[in-house]
Amino acid sequence: MSNELFDLTGKRALVTGGAQGLGRMIAEGLLRAGAIVAITSRKADICEAAAAEMSALGKCIALPADLTTPAAAVELVERYRAAVGGLDILVNNAGKTWGGDIDTFPDKAWPDVMAVNVQTPFTMVRELLPELTASGTADDPSRVINIGSVAGIKTERLHAYSYAASKAAIHMLSRDLAGDLAERNITVNAVIPGFFPTKMTAHFRDEEKVDPTLLAHIPLKRLGKAEDIAGVVVFLCSRGGSYVTGAQIPVDGGVVGCG
Ligand SMILES: NC(=O)c1ccc[n+]([C@@H]2O[C@H](COP(=O)([O-])OP(=O)(O)OC[C@H]3O[C@@H](n4cnc5c(N)ncnc54)[C@H](OP(=O)(O)O)[C@@H]3O)[C@@H](O)[C@H]2O)c1
Fold first, then answer.
1. Quick one: which of 54, 102, 144, 154 has the fewest CB in 10 Å?
2. Which among 144, 181, 187, 149 has a CA at the least distance from the CA of 168?
3. Where are the domains of the chain?
């Protein structure tokens, strides 16, 4: 019963940035649950190597793409269509950050961060609406998951001004899309990670030793693990998650909820 509730056998998923970091944790979770998964990375060799490794878990397809422009997102969708066809699950995970002192924070830290973190996810949804609409039913909607950040909910003092603003924007965009797409049987949710050990948070670790100030800030006193993020995403994509839309779900050891 419980396996059936969270089973994704036969579902087709696209995870942007699925070759590395959180995207890879998510892609592996979806594969383990039975889905066919397409992943992107900017570098073709990294994308193909990751897809080859993950093929041990299920069918995994590499679609290299730099998602800094809407045109690139449109082109990725065309290649996805040719490679897979239909789509049940879209995970907009690819994300870009920029940290810098307020006095010198550069204007160039804005356009690409907003493009990758907000505009591209929107373009991906818009372009994939025919597939998402075709596969969603009232009992089993198709799913869009946008990866946000605690930095878009509370002031984390990360000096990542464009990043925090972009993540607040993707949280709101997720709710707006959820409202508009419910009648097409498409759910849209924002999953909001706290601190996971990826390249993006490498500055919080010294040779894998985590900054004790950071740990003190997390009520559950540890960083996130692959199963923490994969568990929530698999739930949202499964029959068990069919009735959840427009939600913002922190996966953060209590940083938002207990703050
Ligand atoms: N780690 C955390 O604690 C944390 C916390 C909150 C939110 N998040 C969010 O989680 C998501 C994944 O981040 P991460 O922690 O896994 O960091 P990461 O290891 O630096 O991964 C960033 C991902 O985004 C992709 N990406 C970056 N720029 C891109 C571009 N221009 N075009 C296409 N893909 C691009 C990267 O792909 P390639 O490098 O393979 O090209 C990579 O897969 C992001 O949305 C991030 O904001 C992470």
1. 102
2. 149
3. 2-251
Supply the CATH classification number for the domain 2-251: 3.40.50.720
The pLDDT value recorded for residue 168 is: 98
HSE (side-chain half, CA atoms, 13 Å) at 46: 13
The model's confidence at residue 233, banded by pLDDT at 50, 70 and 90, is very high
pLDDT band (50, 70, 90) for residue 47: very high
Ligand 1 pocket member 96 (CB < 6 A)? yes
Catalytic residue flag (residue 163): yes
- Cβ of 95 below 6 Å from ligand 1: yes
Task: Determine the distance separating the centroid of ligand 1 and the alpha carbon of 96, expressed in angstroms.
Answer: 6
Task: Write down the pTM of the prediction.
Answer: 0.98
**Nearest ligand 1 atom to alpha carbon 163:** 47
Q: Which residues contact 206 (CB under 8 A, 6 or more apart)?
A: none
Sign of CA dihedral 106, 175, 186, 147: positive
* pLDDT computed for residue 202 by the predictor: 86
Q: Band of the pLDDT at 2, cuts 50, 70, 90?
A: low
pLDDT at 203: 84
How does pLDDT run across 65-78, given as a tens digit for each residue? 999 999 999 999 99
Residues 6 or more apart in contact with residue 9 via CB below 8 angstroms: 33, 34, 35
Mention every residue, 6+ apart, whose C-beta is less than 8 A from residue 67. Answer: 16, 40, 73, 76, 94, 115, 116, 120
